[in-house]
Design brief:
There is one protein chain. The chain is of the alpha+beta class. The protein has one domain. It is built from seven helices and 14 strands. The strands form two sheets. The protein has an eleven-stranded antiparallel β-sheet. Strands 9-10-13 form a three-stranded antiparallel β-sheet. It is globular and about 60 Å long. It starts with a helix and ends in a 22-residue tail after the last helix.
Length: 287
Protein backbone atom coordinates (compact mmCIF):
# COMPACT_ATOMS: atom_id res chain seq x y z
CA UNK A 1 0.00 0.00 0.00
CA UNK A 2 2.87 2.41 0.73
CA UNK A 3 4.23 1.95 -2.81
CA UNK A 4 0.78 2.45 -4.35
CA UNK A 5 0.27 5.63 -2.32
CA UNK A 6 3.71 6.90 -3.34
CA UNK A 7 3.11 6.22 -7.04
CA UNK A 8 -0.27 7.96 -6.83
CA UNK A 9 1.34 11.02 -5.24
CA UNK A 10 4.09 11.14 -7.86
CA UNK A 11 1.44 10.89 -10.58
CA UNK A 12 -0.37 13.87 -9.07
CA UNK A 13 2.84 15.89 -8.73
CA UNK A 14 3.79 15.11 -12.32
CA UNK A 15 0.59 16.58 -13.80
CA UNK A 16 2.13 19.98 -14.74
CA UNK A 17 4.97 18.31 -16.62
CA UNK A 18 2.64 15.92 -18.43
CA UNK A 19 0.35 18.78 -19.42
CA UNK A 20 3.27 20.79 -20.79
CA UNK A 21 4.49 17.83 -22.83
CA UNK A 22 1.00 17.06 -24.18
CA UNK A 23 0.69 20.68 -25.37
CA UNK A 24 4.14 20.46 -26.96
CA UNK A 25 5.36 23.21 -24.64
CA UNK A 26 9.06 23.15 -23.73
CA UNK A 27 9.63 21.58 -20.34
CA UNK A 28 11.45 23.96 -18.03
CA UNK A 29 14.54 22.51 -16.30
CA UNK A 30 13.68 24.19 -12.98
CA UNK A 31 10.31 22.44 -13.11
CA UNK A 32 11.96 19.07 -13.69
CA UNK A 33 14.23 19.59 -10.69
CA UNK A 34 11.39 20.73 -8.43
CA UNK A 35 9.37 17.69 -9.51
CA UNK A 36 12.28 15.35 -8.79
CA UNK A 37 12.81 16.87 -5.34
CA UNK A 38 9.12 16.48 -4.52
CA UNK A 39 9.19 12.85 -5.69
CA UNK A 40 12.29 12.06 -3.62
CA UNK A 41 10.86 13.63 -0.46
CA UNK A 42 7.57 11.78 -0.92
CA UNK A 43 9.40 8.50 -1.45
CA UNK A 44 11.52 9.02 1.66
CA UNK A 45 8.34 9.28 3.71
CA UNK A 46 6.91 6.05 2.28
CA UNK A 47 9.91 3.77 1.80
CA UNK A 48 10.22 1.30 4.68
CA UNK A 49 12.07 -1.35 2.68
CA UNK A 50 14.93 -3.26 4.33
CA UNK A 51 17.85 -4.86 2.50
CA UNK A 52 20.82 -7.17 2.80
CA UNK A 53 23.69 -6.06 0.56
CA UNK A 54 27.42 -6.19 -0.05
CA UNK A 55 29.30 -2.96 0.66
CA UNK A 56 32.68 -2.53 -1.05
CA UNK A 57 34.90 0.40 -0.05
CA UNK A 58 38.08 1.46 -1.80
CA UNK A 59 40.33 3.12 0.75
CA UNK A 60 43.57 2.32 2.52
CA UNK A 61 42.04 -0.99 3.63
CA UNK A 62 39.88 -1.89 0.57
CA UNK A 63 37.24 -3.42 2.83
CA UNK A 64 34.20 -5.56 2.00
CA UNK A 65 31.30 -5.80 4.43
CA UNK A 66 27.88 -7.45 4.51
CA UNK A 67 25.11 -5.16 5.75
CA UNK A 68 21.64 -6.23 6.92
CA UNK A 69 19.04 -3.59 7.71
CA UNK A 70 16.37 -4.12 10.36
CA UNK A 71 13.71 -1.97 11.96
CA UNK A 72 15.97 -1.61 15.00
CA UNK A 73 19.19 -0.80 13.19
CA UNK A 74 21.64 -1.95 10.53
CA UNK A 75 24.13 -4.72 11.31
CA UNK A 76 27.44 -4.55 9.45
CA UNK A 77 30.07 -7.29 9.37
CA UNK A 78 33.53 -6.86 7.85
CA UNK A 79 34.30 -9.98 5.79
CA UNK A 80 37.39 -9.07 3.75
CA UNK A 81 40.24 -6.57 3.74
CA UNK A 82 42.84 -5.77 1.06
CA UNK A 83 41.44 -8.45 -1.22
CA UNK A 84 41.60 -11.27 1.33
CA UNK A 85 39.01 -12.84 3.67
CA UNK A 86 39.56 -12.17 7.35
CA UNK A 87 41.83 -14.61 9.17
CA UNK A 88 40.17 -16.83 11.79
CA UNK A 89 41.36 -14.57 14.60
CA UNK A 90 40.18 -11.43 12.75
CA UNK A 91 36.82 -13.07 12.05
CA UNK A 92 36.43 -13.92 15.74
CA UNK A 93 37.24 -10.33 16.73
CA UNK A 94 34.67 -9.05 14.22
CA UNK A 95 32.10 -11.53 15.51
CA UNK A 96 32.59 -10.24 19.04
CA UNK A 97 32.22 -6.66 17.81
CA UNK A 98 28.95 -7.48 16.05
CA UNK A 99 27.57 -9.29 19.12
CA UNK A 100 28.51 -6.36 21.35
CA UNK A 101 26.84 -3.94 18.96
CA UNK A 102 23.46 -5.72 18.73
CA UNK A 103 23.26 -6.00 22.54
CA UNK A 104 24.38 -2.45 23.33
CA UNK A 105 21.43 0.00 23.46
CA UNK A 106 23.78 3.01 23.46
CA UNK A 107 25.45 1.98 20.19
CA UNK A 108 22.07 1.29 18.58
CA UNK A 109 20.75 4.66 19.77
CA UNK A 110 23.84 6.41 18.40
CA UNK A 111 23.35 4.75 15.02
CA UNK A 112 19.71 5.86 14.92
CA UNK A 113 20.67 9.40 15.90
CA UNK A 114 23.36 9.58 13.20
CA UNK A 115 20.93 8.18 10.64
CA UNK A 116 18.29 10.73 11.55
CA UNK A 117 20.85 13.54 11.19
CA UNK A 118 21.91 12.20 7.78
CA UNK A 119 18.25 12.16 6.72
CA UNK A 120 17.79 15.77 7.85
CA UNK A 121 20.91 16.84 5.95
CA UNK A 122 19.70 15.04 2.82
CA UNK A 123 16.28 16.71 3.02
CA UNK A 124 17.90 20.11 3.51
CA UNK A 125 20.16 19.71 0.49
CA UNK A 126 17.37 18.29 -1.67
CA UNK A 127 15.12 21.23 -0.88
CA UNK A 128 17.85 23.64 -1.98
CA UNK A 129 18.45 22.08 -5.40
CA UNK A 130 15.83 24.12 -7.33
CA UNK A 131 17.05 27.46 -5.95
CA UNK A 132 20.77 26.92 -5.27
CA UNK A 133 21.52 26.37 -8.97
CA UNK A 134 20.71 27.57 -12.45
CA UNK A 135 19.65 24.55 -14.51
CA UNK A 136 19.57 23.68 -18.17
CA UNK A 137 18.64 20.55 -20.11
CA UNK A 138 21.74 19.14 -21.79
CA UNK A 139 19.96 16.24 -23.50
CA UNK A 140 17.11 13.79 -23.10
CA UNK A 141 16.04 10.40 -24.33
CA UNK A 142 12.90 8.30 -23.90
CA UNK A 143 13.77 7.40 -20.30
CA UNK A 144 15.72 10.31 -18.82
CA UNK A 145 16.50 14.00 -18.69
CA UNK A 146 20.18 14.98 -18.48
CA UNK A 147 20.57 18.32 -16.71
CA UNK A 148 23.51 20.63 -16.05
CA UNK A 149 23.70 23.01 -13.10
CA UNK A 150 25.74 26.08 -12.21
CA UNK A 151 25.72 28.07 -8.94
CA UNK A 152 22.91 30.60 -8.65
CA UNK A 153 24.59 33.95 -7.82
CA UNK A 154 21.41 35.09 -6.04
CA UNK A 155 21.33 32.09 -3.66
CA UNK A 156 22.28 32.75 -0.02
CA UNK A 157 23.52 29.49 1.61
CA UNK A 158 21.78 28.95 4.99
CA UNK A 159 24.36 26.47 6.36
CA UNK A 160 27.96 25.31 6.05
CA UNK A 161 26.88 22.33 3.97
CA UNK A 162 24.91 24.66 1.72
CA UNK A 163 28.03 26.78 1.20
CA UNK A 164 29.84 23.74 -0.18
CA UNK A 165 26.88 22.77 -2.34
CA UNK A 166 26.53 26.28 -3.77
CA UNK A 167 30.18 26.31 -4.88
CA UNK A 168 29.66 23.42 -7.30
CA UNK A 169 28.59 22.83 -10.84
CA UNK A 170 27.71 19.45 -12.31
CA UNK A 171 25.14 17.14 -13.83
CA UNK A 172 21.99 15.32 -12.76
CA UNK A 173 20.05 12.55 -14.51
CA UNK A 174 16.32 12.28 -13.76
CA UNK A 175 14.09 9.32 -14.60
CA UNK A 176 11.11 10.53 -16.63
CA UNK A 177 8.60 7.92 -15.50
CA UNK A 178 8.95 8.26 -11.73
CA UNK A 179 10.81 11.60 -11.57
CA UNK A 180 13.51 10.00 -9.44
CA UNK A 181 17.13 11.16 -9.39
CA UNK A 182 19.34 8.49 -10.99
CA UNK A 183 22.71 10.19 -10.69
CA UNK A 184 24.06 13.48 -9.46
CA UNK A 185 27.66 14.60 -9.72
CA UNK A 186 29.42 17.84 -8.98
CA UNK A 187 32.76 19.62 -8.91
CA UNK A 188 33.95 22.40 -6.62
CA UNK A 189 34.66 25.35 -8.92
CA UNK A 190 36.17 27.54 -6.21
CA UNK A 191 37.76 27.19 -2.80
CA UNK A 192 35.36 27.12 0.13
CA UNK A 193 36.74 28.62 3.34
CA UNK A 194 35.35 28.52 6.87
CA UNK A 195 36.07 31.38 9.25
CA UNK A 196 38.26 33.18 6.67
CA UNK A 197 40.24 29.95 6.35
CA UNK A 198 40.99 29.66 10.07
CA UNK A 199 38.60 26.70 10.52
CA UNK A 200 39.11 24.99 7.22
CA UNK A 201 39.41 25.17 3.47
CA UNK A 202 38.10 22.87 0.75
CA UNK A 203 40.02 23.29 -2.47
CA UNK A 204 38.58 23.81 -5.93
CA UNK A 205 38.58 20.72 -8.12
CA UNK A 206 37.06 18.35 -5.57
CA UNK A 207 34.37 16.06 -6.97
CA UNK A 208 31.48 13.85 -5.91
CA UNK A 209 29.21 11.40 -7.71
CA UNK A 210 26.21 9.47 -6.39
CA UNK A 211 24.42 6.79 -8.41
CA UNK A 212 21.04 5.31 -7.57
CA UNK A 213 19.08 2.41 -9.06
CA UNK A 214 15.56 1.06 -8.80
CA UNK A 215 15.70 -2.32 -7.01
CA UNK A 216 11.96 -2.98 -7.01
CA UNK A 217 8.93 -1.02 -8.27
CA UNK A 218 9.12 2.41 -6.66
CA UNK A 219 12.06 1.44 -4.42
CA UNK A 220 15.39 3.13 -5.14
CA UNK A 221 18.72 2.83 -3.32
CA UNK A 222 22.14 4.45 -3.58
CA UNK A 223 24.45 1.94 -5.27
CA UNK A 224 27.63 4.02 -5.73
CA UNK A 225 29.17 6.94 -3.86
CA UNK A 226 32.40 8.61 -4.96
CA UNK A 227 33.75 11.63 -3.05
CA UNK A 228 37.18 13.18 -3.65
CA UNK A 229 37.46 16.53 -1.90
CA UNK A 230 40.84 17.94 -0.97
CA UNK A 231 41.00 20.00 2.19
CA UNK A 232 39.98 20.04 5.80
CA UNK A 233 37.10 21.57 7.71
CA UNK A 234 37.28 21.55 11.50
CA UNK A 235 34.10 20.41 13.29
CA UNK A 236 32.73 19.15 9.98
CA UNK A 237 34.47 15.85 9.29
CA UNK A 238 31.74 14.58 6.97
CA UNK A 239 32.46 17.31 4.38
CA UNK A 240 36.12 16.60 3.68
CA UNK A 241 36.72 13.01 2.68
CA UNK A 242 37.97 10.48 0.18
CA UNK A 243 35.38 7.82 -0.47
CA UNK A 244 34.69 5.21 -3.15
CA UNK A 245 31.85 2.93 -2.13
CA UNK A 246 29.84 0.43 -4.21
CA UNK A 247 26.82 -1.47 -2.94
CA UNK A 248 25.67 -4.60 -4.79
CA UNK A 249 23.72 -7.87 -4.38
CA UNK A 250 20.68 -6.34 -2.75
CA UNK A 251 18.21 -8.81 -1.23
CA UNK A 252 14.94 -7.83 0.49
CA UNK A 253 14.81 -8.42 4.25
CA UNK A 254 11.62 -9.16 6.18
CA UNK A 255 10.47 -6.28 8.41
CA UNK A 256 10.24 -8.61 11.43
CA UNK A 257 13.94 -9.58 11.24
CA UNK A 258 15.60 -9.35 14.66
CA UNK A 259 19.09 -8.02 15.29
CA UNK A 260 20.24 -11.52 16.20
CA UNK A 261 18.90 -12.89 12.91
CA UNK A 262 20.51 -9.99 11.05
CA UNK A 263 23.86 -10.79 12.67
CA UNK A 264 23.63 -14.35 11.36
CA UNK A 265 22.64 -13.09 7.91
CA UNK A 266 25.80 -10.97 7.74
CA UNK A 267 27.99 -14.06 7.82
CA UNK A 268 29.49 -14.57 4.35
CA UNK A 269 28.37 -18.21 4.28
CA UNK A 270 24.76 -17.31 5.16
CA UNK A 271 22.08 -17.77 2.53
CA UNK A 272 21.02 -14.27 1.42
CA UNK A 273 17.27 -14.77 1.75
CA UNK A 274 14.28 -16.69 0.46
CA UNK A 275 13.94 -13.93 -2.15
CA UNK A 276 16.40 -13.76 -5.10
CA UNK A 277 19.07 -11.10 -4.84
CA UNK A 278 18.94 -7.93 -6.90
CA UNK A 279 22.29 -6.91 -8.34
CA UNK A 280 22.39 -3.18 -9.00
CA UNK A 281 23.51 -3.46 -12.60
CA UNK A 282 23.86 -0.40 -14.83
CA UNK A 283 20.73 0.47 -16.80
CA UNK A 284 20.84 0.40 -20.59
CA UNK A 285 20.47 4.18 -20.86
CA UNK A 286 23.15 5.01 -18.30
CA UNK A 287 25.72 7.61 -19.43
Amino acid sequence: MRVIAYLSLVSLLATPLLQARSRQEPVQPQQIVAQAVAAELAAAQNDRSLWRYRDERKDQHDSISIVVQTGLGAVTRLVARAGHPLSPSEAETENNRVNNFIHDPSQLARQRKDGAQDDRNARELLNMLPTAFLWRIESEDAQTWHLHFEPNPNFSPPSLQARVLSAMNGEMVVDKTQHRIETISGRLIRDVTFGFGLFGRLRAGGTFRVERRQLAPGLWQITETHVHIDGKALFFKNISQEQDEVQIDFTPVSDDTTLEQAAQMTRPEAAPSRTPAVTAAPQSHRH
